[in-house]
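can u pls check wat happens w/ beta-D-galactofuranose
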Amino acid sequence: MTKKWIIAGIFLSCIVFAGCGKIFKEKNQTNSEEIMPDKYIVVGFSQLGAESDWRSANTESMKSTFTNENGFELIFEDGQQKQSNQIMAIRTFIQQEVDYIVLAPVIETGWDTVLQEAKDAGIPVIIVDRMVDVEDESLYTAWVGSDFALEGARAGEWINQFLQVKKIDNANIVNIQGTLGASAQIGRTKGLREACKANANTTLLTEVTGDFTQTKGKEVMESLLKKYDDINIVYCENDNEAFGVIEAIEATGKKVGSDIARGDIMVISFDGVKKEAMDYILKDKITCIVECNPLQGPLVQDIILQLEAGEIPDKFSYVDEGMYAHDDTVSSVVIDGVDYPITVVTQELLDVRAY
Ligand code: GZL
Ligand code: ZN
């Protein structure tokens, strides 16, 4: 081996040993103190389930926000529609000493005890989507979601204006409700009840839960079609139910659409997340959808970063949401003096839509 290689070899081994030495020294150091990896903000997220396209988009929004690249470690737990699973998940997060707990509650009640445990452990809780009904509002730091009562009011007002323009004076309506006790169900049901009370030309025949799923929506619509032969409007509290309802209606040979005077059964819905749902508006199979925006991840991230910076976030943050219809029979609705425009769905709009 030439002299040159020997020198290079010695030089190289110095670096390696020095390096080792360095690592070895640090190794020694770590005996007394841990080398902290880059500190991620650890977020425990208890999602209520996977019942709808809206829920999948909501989960995706959280997972794509709370990434290592963004400085987070996300622990995700799917509650499979059971509050008991969500309570178990929160207790696990507490044991894991996460930095923040995010909860999408399946129903509003029954959270006081476990949220008190999180508070006692000094872990801030952020509620997303639906609301919790607790004695002490300090049990959660902030809430991000939709104004469901406003969603219901907008839908109810749209129906009444539509009937007025079309001069329909005897509309029979059925409500396929969401999961009973969920804020989305409470607000949307309230909106329809108030609209029917305000309009003598409507009759609310019945309300029955479709649990926000397509299967249940179809099942309950099949039984309603056996019970009633004069349904003019089906109010679905989410798109997945609307799909099941439409299947059931078309299976009887009846037509869904906005021409009530000619015997169509008109379908109204909420969410606007399922791509096919917006396509159904184009085809007048669903006549109107009140949008429910699932993309809450970035708003929750903002709240956590404010808290990390020692700032106090707003207690309630609302996502923006629109309304979509097959045509411009109703161009806008006014609720408490605020004008909410309605967007007519076109293929161009669908081609550029975010989700
Ligand atoms: C609304 C959300 C509802 C959606 C449904 O924010 O809670 O739950 O409207 C989902 O699709 O199942
Ligand atoms: Zn049309």
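The CA atoms of residues 14 and 20 lie 9 Å apart.
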